[in-house]
Input
Amino acid sequence: MAAVLTKCTTITEEVFLVTAELLAEKTPEARLDSGMLFPAFSDMKEVAPQLIAGICEYIIKAGLGTQPDGVTDWLEYVKVQMFKPPEGTASRL
Output
């Protein structure tokens, strides 16, 4: 999604590394201590927008994409752009 939002021209190895680092930062210490590398799937709705926003910021800083006009807060922009299933269809998330 970050690549689409920024019209990223190239997804480099560094983009993947930054993504992994950002994801690791979102993993609670308790999960890391128990050997888990990623946040719980049940936390996806909270973690995904933060992760995507961070990737967007990196892509722009690295000169790999363009920032949409008027976007100053990537997290809010990502939240607005994300798909929201109709009420009741994704109750398990």
